[in-house]
Design a protein that fits this description.
The complex is a heterodimer of chains A (670) and B (111). Chain A is α/β, with parallel strands linked by helices and 670 residues long. Chain A contains 22 helices and 10 strands. In chain A, the strands form 2 sheets. A 7-stranded mixed beta sheet of chain A has the order 3-2-1-4-8-6-9, with helices on both faces. In chain B, strands 1, 2, 3, 4 and 5 form a 5-stranded mixed beta sheet that branches. Classes of the chains: A alpha/beta (670), B alpha/beta (111).
């Protein structure tokens, strides 16, 4: 097929998709509006309201999906790569086996386009270094600046490497993503656009059988969903198999530094003032000299704040301020020395606690500063604290290893937050739908669950910390594309309701809708049908059922991601973050203990179905309602059956036929 | 290509003049020079951008890293004489609100 034919085919496909999107939206709004206005059984509000809320949730999910599909962008053949670009290929590793890393590193070395290859070894392993350097591959580990500082996992590893490499472009690879030789030739051409910051390619796994029991492949995400986001200039960075323009990342790092250092100094000055006031309250009537010193520092704080408000450059203001405080401190040194000792201990404590905080400035500002201002200070201690506070935030951003942190550290999944900030600066991203690396997926349920939990937690952290809907520098389409991914992780709560409703009806006969009338079915069924039709049309032959199953069947994981991310962001708790193991966990027998909530759900569904049948037999239930709810239970069981399959899965058998590599780049136009 | 001229004024202020393109491949060179000056005890430094034909965000990153070293040693880092193009790069990242470029090398430490 020539290019013209391909374009016409793609245009026809997009037209069809848009028609189905419109139909889905109309029928969905029609159904859910009718549900709210006319059919909620308010007498049974305790199940009726959750159900209509869950249905509304699903409608919004469907509308956001439709919005993405509206602009599905099939880029087809990539532009040719310009010669002479400089590229660093960065392979991030922490504790993966040396052989596995070296397999990826050798493949990276063999990439056609001229480049330099680096292993970023966060484990600082001498044998990793020896293996890499023996084959002419660069080896980078954290610089000494990181000693005793928050490490920020993979984001920190990449930030460290950014400062010691110098290529114009970076190809980021996980240790288990083996690149094809053509990966750079197929992606660098997009950077002809000077505003293009990043090109993401799919993550596709070789060690997954055709029926994909753990739902490892994400054919809908690495395909139509990314293509839809791409249409709104919101294609996501997914952490690996992506090429990034260094200038975009560095510009992001510098502008974040400028913003954070300004906000941090403002906060530090505010806290400094309350520390001083606290100290002054404890002064005796005969300590006039000390009082005058504290007064003059407070005066200087006010002056610094006014200068900043006038727009004077921050470094000038803080430099003068620090010089003046240092002068006053020299004069105060003769003051009470015994009280100073305990204050110095408290200051040291502050420094320790900011070291432990995993999110840099955010760790300095709230709890630690509150504690400081609530403490009783000796005068000299107060002055020392004021200086320490301002020193801590200006220049070196408190407890961070390096002032410039291009990869976002607000989330355990650095990729999404970084990409959203790049979009906020006006950069573009592209999704190139062609498999250019062969990855390894988890082969056991425990590892898979850990990985999904981590992704979900990371996404929810970003939603709590930098809600895309509130990012004024993003366009509305971009805000909604980021929000859609976060919204989809709320499905765990909806799944609970979709489980409970049929069980409630079959066991105690309470119906959350007013009646299972003809009108109900006339409104509901067409919506369900076009919704599935939309999946069918956009998927164009890619399997979607696994994804649908897991979006409900992993409900305990999604719920935990919300509660743990909430606890982390708002209550300062740990996420219990774990690095995804890349080698198989040895275990005997099916891993039933990992999926207990799902097994209980299955048992409850089966029991409710039996009770329902008995109730019909004894004339206690309406046949129509029971049959409808039995069908619903049947659907739920079909969804949850994947859990039984996953728990029994014993890992990939290399002699079996793996899934064929999808011919992605051309599929859409064919 | 880029060259760095390094001088010390009678007042003990180090003056570093990058001549050429200060970009991702030369940023590390600048950072090493600045760190070296601070290590030798010269913690008050002016980076004279008058002969810098091009500056990118990696160059800004090196300036910030140098600023950090200088301040931690009790000194400061000032930038002077930026060209129009260089000023634009400062503004693009809001760095002009943190680090104000000075008009002359001699007066960089006056105010």
């Amino acid at each position: 097929m020539d290019t013209g034919q391909q374009e016409r085919a793609a245009a026809r496909r997009l037209l069809l998709i848009r028609i189905v999107v419109l139909l889905t939206a109309l029928l969905g709004v029609n159904y859910v509006a009718w549900r709210w206005l006319f059919s909620v059984n308010w007498d049974a509000w305790w199940i009726a309201v959750p159900l209509v809320v869950a249905e509304t949730y699903s409608l919004v999910d469907s509308l956001l999906f439709g919005l993405a599909m509206w602009r599905l962008k099939e880029r087809g053949e990539p532009p040719a790569p310009p010669p002479g670009l400089t590229v660093d290929v960065l392979i991030a590793t922490y504790n993966e086996p040396i052989d596995l890393v070296m397999r990826t590193a050798r493949a990276a070395l063999a990439i056609d386009y001229p480049h330099r290859t680096w292993v970023l070894d966060d484990g600082n392993r001498p044998e990793m270094r020896a293996a890499a350097e023996a084959e002419g591959i660069g080896w980078i580990t954290r610089s000494e600046d990181w000693a005793g500082m928050p490490r920020h996992a993979k984001a920190g590893n990449l930030n460290n490497a950014l400062l010691v490499t110098e290529g114009e472009f970076l190809l980021i690879l996980d240790a288990d993503q083996v690149p094809l030789p053509s990966i750079l030739d197929r992606t660098l051409g997009y950077f002809d656009d000077p505003r293009m910051a990043l090109v993401q390619t799919p993550q596709w796994f070789v060690n997954v059988p055709d029926d994909d029991p753990l739902g490892s492949q994400a054919p809908l995400f690495y395909g139509p969903i990314q293509q839809g986001k791409d249409g709104w200039n919101a294609a996501f960075f997914c952490g690996s198999n992506a090429v990034i323009r260094r200038e975009a990342l560095m510009q992001l790092g510098v502008s974040r530094y400028a913003d954070e250092v300004q906000a941090g100094v403002q906060r530090a000055l505010r806290t400094a003032r309350s520390v001083l006031r606290q100290a002054r309250r404890g002064l005796g009537p005969d300590e006039d000299g000390v009082r005058r010193a504290l007064d003059s520092i407070e005066h200087d704080i006010g002056r610094a704040r006014r200068e900043l408000a006038r727009g004077e450059a921050l470094m000038d203001v803080t430099y003068r301020f620090q010089q003046r405080v240092a002068e006053i401190r020299r004069r105060l040194v003769e003051a009470d020395l015994t009280a100073v000792q305990s204050d110095l201990a408290a200051i040291a404590e502050l420094e320790r606690s900011t070291d432990e905080a995993d999110d840099g400035l955010a760790g300095v500002d709230l709890s630690a500063l509150d504690q400081l201002s609530a403490r009783d200070w000796s005068p000299l201690g107060a002055v020392e604290t004021v200086q320490a506070l301002v020193d801590a935030v200006d220049v070196d951003l408190g407890s961070e290893a390096q002032p410039i942190m291009p990869m976002a550290t607000i989330s355990v999944t650095e990729d999404m937050a970084t990409c959203m900030r790049l979009h906020g600066l006006g950069w573009r991203t592209a999704y190139h739908d062609e498999v250019l690396a062969h990855g390894l997926a988890p082969e056991d349920l425990a590892t898979m669950l850990t990985q999904r939990l981590r992704w979900a937690q990371g996404t929810v952290q970003v939603m709590f910390r930098e809600n895309p809907l509130l990012q004024r520098r993003l366009r509305w389409g971009q805000r909604l594309m980021y929000f859609a991914t976060m919204w989809s992780y709320l499905s765990g709560f909806a799944a609970l309701v979709y489980l409970a409703a049929p069980i409630v009806y079959l066991t105690i006969g309470v119906l959350p809708v007013q009646a299972l009338s003809t009108e109900f079915f006339v409104r509901l069924v067409p919506f369900l049908v076009v919704n599935q039709l939309l999946f069918f049309v956009v998927a164009a032959g890619r399997p979607t059922w696994r994804g649908q199953q897991y979006s409900l069947a992993l409900f305990p994981v999604w719920i935990k991601s919300f509660t743990s991310a909430f606890g982390n962001v708002f209550l300062g708790r740990s996420l219990d973050f774990a690095v995804t193991p890349k080698t198989r966990q040895e275990s005997d027998g099916p891993a039933w203990h990992l999926v207990r909530p799902q097994l209980w759900a299955i048992a409850a569904l089966v029991a409710a179905a039996l009770v329902g049948v008995v109730r019909i037999g004894t004339g206690q239930a309406h046949p129509a309602g029971t049959i409808f709810n039995l069908l619903w239970v049947g659907f739920d069981l079909a969804i949850f059956s994947v859990i039984l399959k996953a728990a029994r899965y014993r890992g990939f058998d290399p002699t079996a036929t793996p899934a064929p590599i999808p011919d992605r780049a051309r599929r859409g136009a064919a | 290509m880029i060259e760095f001229a390094v001088d010390t004024t009678p007042e003990g202020v180090g003056v570093v003049t990058p001549k050429g393109r200060l970009n991702m491949s030369s940023a590390r060179g600048l950072k090493d020079i600045l760190d070296g000056l601070v290590a030798e005890g010269t913690s008050r430094i002016v980076v004279d951008l008058g002969e810098t034909t091009f500056l990118d965000s990696s160059g800004l990153g090196a300036l910030i890293a140098g600023l950090k070293s200088a301040r931690q040693a009790g000194g400061d880092l000032r930038v002077a004489r930026p060209t129009e193009a260089v000023t634009t790069v400062f503004k693009l990242t809001n760095l002009d609100r943190v680090l104000r470029p000075r008009d002359s090398v001699e007066g960089a430490f006056d105010a």
